[in-house]
Design brief:
Blueprint lengths: L15 H8 L11 H4 L3 H16 L14 H14 L5 H6 L4 H5 L6 H18 L3 H18 L8
GO molecular function, one term: heme binding
InterPro entries: GlbO/GLB3-like, Globin-like_sf, Globin/Proto, Globin_bac-like_CS, Hemoglobin_trunc
Cofactor: heme
Length: 158
C-alpha cells in the first residue's frame, strides 16, 4: 500500500466529482437541529418580516429610519440576519459580513420611544406566527433584548 511520508494516506484530490458534490444544492445543510427549523424555517421568517414591515411602513416614527423608498431591501437584510441568527442559511454573513448591529444603527436616532414602536410592530408579527409558547417566548425574549441594545439616543423630549 502506498503511503506518503510519515505513514499518512494521501489527501483526497478535489477532482470533478468532489467539486460537483460541493456545489450540489442537495448536499447543503438541512438546518434540522435548529430553532429555525423547529418554527417552520424560511416561510415562518418571511411571514414575521412581512407582518413587521407592514407596520413599519405606516409608522410615522419608524418609517423615516428607512431611507430607501422601497422597504424590500431592508426586509431582505433583516430576513437574512434573522435566519442566520436562528440557525438557518448563512447568507447574511456571506453577503454582509459580521452583523455589527449597533454600528449599523448608529446613523439613526434610536430613542426609547422608537424601541417601543419597533417592539409594538414586532409583537404583532410574532403573534401572527402562532408559535408554541416555548418558541414564542424564546423569540420574543431575543427581540426585546435586541431592541433594548439598539437605543443610542435619549428620549425626544429630554
Amino acid at each position: 500500500m502506498s503511503n506518503t511520508a510519515g505513514g499518512q494516506p494521501p489527501a483526497p484530490q478535489a477532482g470533478p466529482r468532489r467539486q460537483l458534490m460541493q456545489n450540489d444544492p442537495f448536499s447543503q445543510p438541512a438546518y434540522t437541529d435548529s430553532f429555525y427549523a423547529a418554527v417552520g424555517g424560511h416561510e415562518t421568517f418571511v411571514k414575521l418580516i412581512d407582518v413587521f414591515y407592514d407596520g413599519v411602513a405606516t409608522d410615522p416614527l419608524l418609517r423615516p429610519m428607512y431611507p430607501e423608498e422601497d422597504l424590500g431591501p431592508a426586509k431582505r437584510r433583516f430576513l437574512m440576519f434573522l435566519e442566520q441568527y436562528w440557525g438557518g442559511p448563512t447568507t447574511y454573513g456571506e453577503e454582509r459580513g459580521h452583523p455589527r448591529l449597533r454600528m449599523r444603527h448608529m446613523p439613526f436616532q434610536v430613542t426609547p420611544e422608537a424601541k417601543d414602536r419597533w417592539l409594538f410592530h414586532m409583537r404583532t408579527a410574532v403573534d401572527s406566527l402562532e408559535l408554541s409558547p416555548l418558541h414564542e417566548g424564546t423569540l420574543w425574549d431575543y427581540m426585546e433584548r435586541a431592541a433594548l441594545t439598539m437605543i443610542n439616543s435619549p428620549s425626544a423630549g429630554a
